[in-house]
Amino acid sequence: MDLSIIGSGYVGLVTGACFADVGHNVICVDNDPSKVESLQAGKVPIYEPGLEEVINRNVAAKRLRFTGSIKDGVDNSQVVFIAVPTPQAADGHVDLSFIEKVAREIAGVLSDYRVIVDKSTVPVKTGEKVAESIKRYNKHGAEFDVVSNPEFLREGCAVADLMKPDRIVIGAQSERAIDLMKKIYEPFMSPILVTDINSAELIKHAANSFLALKISYINAVSAICEASGADVEKVADGIGMDRRIGRNFLNAGIGYGGSCFPKDIAAFIKISEQLGVPFTLLKEVQRINASQKDRFLTAVRDALWVLREKKIAVWGLTFKPDTDDIRSSVAIDLVADMLKEGAHVTVYDPKGMEKAREVKEIAGATFAASALEAVEGAEALIVATEWSEFAAVDLETVKESMATPMVFDGRNLFDPQTMATLGFQYHSIGRHRVAPR
Ligand code: UGA
Fold first, then answer.
1. Is 28 a catalytic residue?
2. Any idea what the CATH number is for the domain that residue 263 is in?
3. Are residues 24 and 112 part of one domain?
4. Which pLDDT score, from 0 to 100, does residue 434 have?
5. How many Å lie between the centroid of ligand 1 and the Cα of residue 155?
6. Residue-level pLDDT at 433
7. Can you tell me the distance from the alpha carbon of 241 to that of 326, in angstroms, rounded to the nearest whole number?
8. Backbone angles phi, psi at 132, to 5 degrees
9. What's the average model confidence in pLDDT over 234-262?
10. Final residue of a domain: which of 163, 195, 227?
11. Which residues line the pocket of ligand 1, CB cutoff 6 A?
12. Looking at ligand 1, which residue's alpha carbon is closest to its atom 17?
């Protein structure tokens, strides 16, 4: 089929590349000329495992191309996907101005029946607004249908998530649109759930909120484990073996971050308030998430007494491994907090350094060239992101390089017993403390 995707960010680019990979002809549209130019020159602006290969393969096969023109995309496709950003406004509500603008622009060039699909994360009832807007600016009175088709991919494994989704949600009200959408997704051989548009939109916010709730739940349990001497990993295993609960997203740590959970939870709270049914449980999810970072910093302060002038190494700046994304990363917040208290912080991340150098809150940090360089002379090491590169570092060398062998593991990457045997004073999240040998 002939498809176009408006917006070449994480979702748009990965979706376009994967649609092309299963045989569709795809046009990716973006209003940033420098992004379009670099994509046309074969340069992928984000780090996402496997994405560059998929893009190159499909550009070479002439199934994927990039343009700055919405008219080009709309004229040459049966289905037009909208995948533009829906950022958070200062009061927590979702800024839908990009979606509104794209809807107007599509309407302006619409000359024949098209299905307009919203893939961006939006509040419930946005589809109705998009339809109204297209109707208003539809100069030629062309027929169209609006569909909601939320995306569930995770950064770091976005290509795999898109190629093998747990489910595909199609929110639509016309059989004609549903048939076309089913045809697009046929090659993915995954379960398809057809709903009304409002339910599809709600599924996205409800799913992300539930996952964040799972993380905050286990993080709250981790505090109880620390206070009582239990082990949060064992507790997570024990409850996760119940198939009604499941073990996924029960990894305790310094809290969730990224461009989705913090924004989507705030938005869902706002939407529920606007609808007159405040979802107060989600406020507690937010509170627990913030307190997890604070509890961690308190443990660092308790051990080091004062942070001023202490040399602290931080491994990991991205909000999760296998991405270069540092948006709303708890790791960045931690570094900023410690710098404010006068610590000398040296940071290292396998992929996030370039973007982190631009963050003014951590401009006072030293940027190391490797994980080992970061720990040289350090009085404490903080593990803020669980990159596999860190798990593979020789810990004996780490210990020798450090001034005092103290490790605060915010992602439970290492085994407490092993760390104690190596002679580290080791603090992790919700697990037993073992005295160093
Ligand atoms: C999340 C959802 O998982 C995707 O399904 C959704 O499509 C996406 O948001 C989106 O709305 O676009 P993403 O933010 O890329 O995906 O990454 P996750 O793997 O969900 O991780 C989010 C945060 O939760 C990370 O900071 C991670 O470290 C943290 N996390 C995750 C935990 O602290 N514990 C866990 O057990 C799992």
1. no
2. 3.40.50.720
3. yes
4. 78
5. 8
6. 78
7. 32
8. -60, -45
9. 97
10. 195
11. 121, 151-155, 208, 211, 215, 249-251, 253, 256-258, 260-261, 319-320
12. 154
